[in-house]
Amino acid sequence: MRMEREQQAGGPIVRGFAGTGFRVDDGAYRALLLTVTAASGWTPPPLATLDVDALAPLLDPAPEFVLIGTGATLTRPPAALVAALDAQGIGVEAMDSRAAARAWGVLRGEGRQIAAALYPLDA
To answer: Which residues contact 65 (CB under 8 A, 6 or more apart)?
Structure first.
């Protein structure tokens, strides 16, 4: 009997870590944007200046919330970003990038309609 460890909800899943980045499907990314349908490399701004414009590729259609992987350690995202997303009915969950990558897989396995922005693991 074969047991599935995770349900597949479709779309990209972070399968592991590669150096200071993430392995997704056949690619490796230093920083990453994830939607329920696509993964793409990202050149993130400094976390202190992260704004809605930098996350625009994640927001149409609007997800339930955005996971923000803040690098090697948890750092709070800018309050202005959280407020701007909240005004659009989009929540924000911040955690270190490894935890965010793992949470992505669990939440997508549940079929949640989320998005993620993951800073490099050494940031």
So the answer is: 90, 91, 92, 93, 114, 115
